[in-house]
Every structure is written in C-alpha cells, then in structure tokens.
Design goal:
Elements: E1 34-38, E2 45-49, E3 53-58, E4 63-72, E5 76-78, E6 83-85, E7 88-95, E8 99-109, E9 122-131
Parallel strand pairs: 1-3, 2-9
Antiparallel strand pairs: 3-7, 4-8, 5-7, 6-7, 8-9
Length: about 130
C-alpha cells in the first residue's frame, strides 16, 4: 500500500511526510497497518484504508497542545484516551469507514508565570481520506 500526502505546507514553515526517517510519534513505527502523524504533518492530506491505525503525536516545542479532535464525519474510532506526557500530546485512532475526515488540535505558547508571553493559537490540521480495503 502506498501512502500519499499533499504537501500544502504547515504552520511555521515545517514540511514533512508521515512515516519519515524519524518517528513522528515516539514509539510509533509506520508500516502497512500504522500511519504516524506529527507536528510537521499539519496541512497535509493523508490517505489510509479501513482498518489502519492512525497515531498522532504533537511534541511541545514551546507549545502547549490541546483539544485534539475529529472534525466532520467521524470515520476514525479513538483507541484509548488522548494522553499528554512530557509536553507531547498523543492519541491513536482506527479507520472504520471510507470517506473524508479531519483531525485538529490547537497549540498555545507555554510560558512561565511572570514572563512576557506572545498571544497566539496555532491550528494543527490533517485531512484524512479513507478508502475501502482492496
């Protein structure tokens, strides 16, 4: 199976592709049954098939990530709870039906109390196209 990504760019100019040389999600090993998505995958379209697992890992990098959710048709079933450990937000989903959906999360600056802090919210979004098994 071939995964295809439309490189549309992502926040802060980071470009990448699911399943690159470094795991996007700590402990995630991309393969025929697993797709790993990280911060650099924001703005991309990823193609998967029903039954594949989609793992998301958004590393802190000075940001506090929250509100990871599926937007649109709910074609991904969350496997376990969303977790936040060591500044990384992680979640796992299984593709359950063919169609199109999106995953979104927001990142805000992680500032120490009493220090100047920029005021912005970064939107991370990945479009997911799910096809039936062949």
């Amino acid at each position: 199976m071939v995964l295809t990504a439309c490189l549309l760019g992502s926040p802060l100019g980071a470009l990448g592709r699911a399943g690159g040389t470094e795991p996007a999600v700590p402990g995630c090993h991309p393969g025929s049954h697993v797709v790993c998505l990280g911060r650099s995958d924001g703005g991309h379209t990823v193609h998967v098939v029903v039954g594949q697992t989609v793992m998301v890992g958004l590393a802190g990098s000075g940001l506090r990530w929250s509100d990871l959710r599926q937007v649109g048709r709910h074609l991904l079933r969350q496997h376990g709870a969303t977790a936040e450990r060591g500044g990384t937000l992680t979640a796992s989903y299984v593709a359950t039906a063919a169609g199109r959906t999106e995953l979104r999360a927001s990142g805000a600056p992680n500032c120490a109390p009493g220090e100047a802090c920029p005021q912005f919210i970064l939107l991370w979004q990945v479009r997911i196209v799910i096809s039936s098994r062949k």
